[in-house]
Each structure stands twice: as structure tokens, then as C-alpha cells.
Amino acid sequence: MLAHNGVGIAAPQVSESVRAFIVASRPNARYPYAPLMSPTLMLNPELIWTSDDMEKDWEGCLSIPGMRARVNRHTSIEVRYLTLTGEEVSTRMEGFIARIFQHELDHLNGIVFLDRADKADYATEAEFLKLMQKA
User: 76, exposed or middle or buried, with CB in 10 Å at 0-12, 13-18, 19+?
Assistant: First the structure.
């Protein structure tokens, strides 16, 4: 994940059949405006509440290199998960961190980001970078 500038990774992406993922937002070449947070392992994660407000923004995935797509996600969520020591954590997530959680939770449910995007919102990495230079 770190070597490829990812901000999260789910167990199924590394051939592990467990309900777990890591959320590890940090600014990098793929996500220069990502907020900095400590990598957090989340076991048996659950989405408890979602805001009505949604935002369409660009996502990529380490499992689908070279592709990006604009995906509509809830901007604010409440989640619950277990830590490695078995502690239950309930917290609210906003913005990019909420987007990462939803993206990784989708992996646990057999969904990839392209499944949630309109084909008109797909872009290759090269096309995406050109779009970002114009913005």
C-alpha cells in the first residue's frame, strides 16, 4: 500500500478472507491533498449511519492500476470497528477519510469503485492527471 501511494487496503486485496482493512490517509503523489492520519487497522467494520449529503469525487484502487473514476459517496458517516486488541471503536468520519472507509468496506462486500461509477466518469491515470492540471 505504501509503496504504491495507497491510502487504504482491504484484506481481500492481499488474499486474506477476513473482514479487515487499513485506513492510512496521507498526502502522496496519488492523493496530494489527503489529510494526514496514523494508519488504522479496522476489524469487522460496520457503517452505522450515513449523511444525506453526498459528493462525487475521484478515486483509484491498487487492485485496478491505471484507472480512476468519479464516485458518489456520503460526506459524513458513523462507523464501528474492533481494534487488534478487541476494543470496540465508534467514531464519526468526514470527507476524504469517510470516502476511504466506504471504498475499503466495499472491498469486503465484493464491490470495486468502478461498480459505483458511471462509465462517463471513468478515466485512465494519464487522463486524470491532465484533468487535475487544468483544475
Answer: middle
Nine-digit cell string for 85: 486488541
Can you list the positions of beta strands (E) in 1-135? 8-10, 20-23, 40-50, 54-60, 67-74, 76-82, 88-94, 122-124
Residues 35-92: pLDDT tens digits?
999 999 999 999 999 999 999 999 999 999 999 999 999 999 999 999 999 999 999 9
Residue type for position 10: A
Compute φ and ψ for 6, nearest 5 degrees.
-80, 165
Give me Rg for the CA atoms of the chain.
Answer: 14
CB of 81 closer than 8 Å to CB of 42: yes
pTM above 0.85, yes or no: yes
Nearest to 56 by CA among 107, 7, 113: 113
List of residues 6+ apart from 68 with CB closer than 8 A: 58, 59, 60, 122, 123, 124, 125, 127, 128
Asked if residues 102 and 77 have their Cβ atoms less than 8 Å apart, the reply is yes
100 vs 5: CA distance, rounded Å: 13
Q: Catalogue the active-site residues.
A: 104
